[in-house]
Specification:
The protein folds into 2 domains: 221 residues, 3-Layer(aba) Sandwich (Rossmann fold); 91 residues, Rossmann fold (3-Layer(aba) Sandwich). The strands form 2 sheets. The protein has a 6-stranded mixed beta sheet with strand order 1-2-10-7-8-9, sandwiched between helices. Strands 5-4-3-6 form a 4-stranded parallel beta sheet, with helices on both faces. Strand 3, helix 5 and strand 4 form a beta-alpha-beta unit. The protein is α/β, with parallel strands linked by helices and 327 residues long. The protein has 14 helices and 10 strands. The mean pLDDT is 96.
């Protein structure tokens, strides 16, 4: 199966009765400050606090009865883990999840709370792909990859259809849609929807500094890896390199990339709370941060930032709110 606009429409039907149609919000005060119409897609309000539930539920729905009976396996920095765990619970099947040992406690606890078995590893010295392939083979489990899975990509693409439809009801079309990008599942799904429905809309990947593999890869025309010497608070989108399935989609849709610092992500967390009363995690805030920092031209334009997740460590969130008082 190759992800297409048609497979996204099919995914929209599969998840319609279970996924939240999240709001598209704007702030007049923020629009005046930036000189544009900026909308945020609040996927923080999705089930499990992240867009990941969309793709996870769609992927699990597509499994055969035999695959469901044997159980599933996933590796994730936290949000895919929670999406898979809840979707598996809703389907009545067992889930085993491999997560980084430095995953925020809220994500670990939530994943376990949905009934999944959790195994941890060191994301900086071990390969989750190698560990995952071994465990899945040994226990005869079906692997649900976080982004290199056509059903996952199609599920994430429903976010893009919603954005486009919500703007259309306001008689608007986005000049640019910016989304956080790790492996590229969300952005590639949005890109496919936009390519069909609003081909003039520009698509941007937002990434943390030192983890800008998609930005560099799009410039180079080939998949490039991130180094292992850096760390970032944007744990949700710290991935080794762009996906095998997602990167060609981003290339074909002529996506571009922008990067933000950890401090800029934290400032966006404050701004999301101040202007929209939303709780956003660092990795989920990078697209919003890119627009706040005018990493692309926003003047007089209609722009959308996806707030992709809200599973933030309580202490980090509290310290961030106390750190800033204005943009």
């Amino acid at each position: 199966m190759t992800p297409t606009y048609e497979t996204i429409l099919k995914a929209a039907t599969a998840i319609k009765s279970v996924a939240v149609k999240t709001p598209l919000l704007e702030s007049p005060a923020l629009n005046e400050f930036l000189g544009c119409r900026l909308f945020v897609k609040a996927e923080t309000l999705q089930k499990t606090g992240s867009f990941k539930f969309r793709g996870a539920f769609n992927a699990i729905s597509s499994l055969s009865t035999d695959q469901k009976n044997r159980g599933i396996f996933a590796y994730s920095s936290g949000n895919h883990a929670q999406g898979v765990a809840l979707a598996a619970q809703m389907h009545g099947i067992k889930a085993t999840i491999l997560m980084p040992e430095d995953t925020p406690e809220i994500k670990l606890n939530n994943t376990k709370g949905y009934g999944a078995k959790v195994i941890t590893y060191n994301r900086y010295t071990q390969s989750r792909e190698e560990i995952g392939a071994k465990i899945a083979a040994q226990e005869n489990l079906t692997l649900i990859k976080p982004y290199d899975n056509p059903h996952v990509i199609s599920g994430q693409g429903t976010t893009g259809i919603e954005i486009i439809q919500q703007l259309k009801r306001l008689n608007l079309e986005a000049d640019a849609i910016v989304a956080p990008c790790g492996g590229g599942g969300l952005l590639s799904g949005i890109s496919l929807a936009a390519q069909t429905l609003v081909p003039d809309t520009r698509i941007y990947a937002a990434e943390p500094e030192n983890f800008d593999d998609t930005t560099r890869s799009l410039i180079a025309g080939k998949r490039l890896e991130n180094g292992t010497e850096h760390k970032s608070i944007c744990d949700a989108i710290v991935t080794p390199m762009p996906g095998e399935l997602t990167f060609p989609i981003l290339q074909s849709c002529k996506a571009s990339g922008v990067t933000v610092s950890d401090e800029e992500a934290k400032q966006a967390i404050w701004a999301a709370f101040h202007y929209f009363k939303l709780v956003v995690e660092p990795g989920g805030a990078v697209a919003f941060a890119a627009l706040l920092q005018r990493k692309i031209d926003v003047n007089g334009k209609v722009v959308v930032a996806v707030l992709s997740g809200g599973n933030v460590d309580q202490q980090l969130f509290a310290s961030t709110l106390s750190q800033y008082s204005s943009l």
